[in-house]
Every structure is written in C-alpha cells, then in structure tokens.
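Students often ask why inverse folding is considered easier than folding. One informal answer: many sequences map to the same fold, so there is more than one right answer. In these notes we will look at a single instance of the problem. The structure comes first.
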C-alpha cells in the first residue's frame, strides 16, 4: 500500500510541476490585441496543457483513492464535481468550490480548443483566461499541498501497520 501511495504522490508532484511550468509559460507571453496567431496558439496550447495536468491529478485521485473514475459523456464535469466533495472515511474534498468553478472555465476553453478547428483564437479571451488561471493557481497549489499531506499521512499509517 505504501509504495502505491508514494508513487501516487510522485505522479501528482510531476503533474503539478507541469501545471506550474505552463502557468509560467503563459505569464511570459505577450498577449495583446495585436498578438499574432503563433502567440495565440502558444497560449492556447499552454492553457490546454495546464488544465490537462490538473485533470490528470484529479483522475489519479479518482482512480487510486476513490476507486472509481466517472464515465459517460460528461465525465469531465463529474470529475470536477466529485473532487469538490469530501467522501467520509475515504478522503477530504480535494478542491474548494472556488477551484471547481475556476477549473470549469478552463475545461470549457479546453473543449472549445479541441473542437473549434476553423475559429481564430482571440488574444483578449486568452488573456482573460491566463489571468483567471494565475488567480486560481495559489489556492489550487494550497489544495494540492493539502492533498499531499493527506496522502503522506496514509503512507505513514501504512508504514505503522507493517511494523
């Protein structure tokens, strides 16, 4: 059990680092009204990957802690909802209501980005999403720290049971 929990912690730490790199990448981009298509595309990909790294963390928790990954056409929304719930005897809520809301907006953009092949990317909208993500990041990181503390306690308890 301890090895599985420690592996989960390592995988979450990896995904968290990707999230932080993508937010840093977004911060470095010059997203002005006259931003060219390449800058807009780079911002869109960074937003896509930032959300993807966070969703990967949530999927790992659903699979390894909850023991169940949502399915069906709205599984992305269901995953966010589930991670905002405390499950008695299993885990505390992973995300606050505010973080769930922030991530829903990024999920909406990711859905648009994946399916809007013929639409030009709007630098102003990308700039708003970047600011939204930068505002949401500190609470998300705090929540990920709390998740890691919870998982560390599980690993420690598993070690104590083996002794």
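Output (designed amino acids):
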């Amino acid at each position: 059990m301890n090895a599985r929990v420690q592996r989960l912690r390592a995988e979450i730490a990896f995904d968290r680092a990707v999230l932080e790199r993508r937010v840093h990448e977004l911060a470095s981009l010059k997203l002005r009204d006259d931003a060219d298509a390449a800058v807009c595309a780079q911002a869109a990909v960074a937003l896509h990957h930032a959300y993807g790294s966070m969703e990967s963390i949530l999927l790992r928790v659903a699979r390894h802690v909850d023991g169940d990954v949502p399915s069906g056409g709205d599984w992305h929304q269901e995953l966010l909802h589930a991670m905002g719930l405390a499950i008695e005897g299993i885990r505390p809520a992973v995300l606050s209501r505010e973080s769930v809301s922030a991530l829903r907006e990024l999920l909406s953009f990711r859905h648009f980005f994946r399916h809007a092949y013929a639409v030009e990317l709007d630098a102003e909208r990308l700039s708003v999403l970047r600011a939204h993500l930068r505002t949401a990041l500190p609470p998300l990181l705090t929540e990920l720290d709390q998740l890691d503390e919870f998982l560390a306690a599980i690993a420690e308890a598993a070690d104590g049971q083996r002794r």
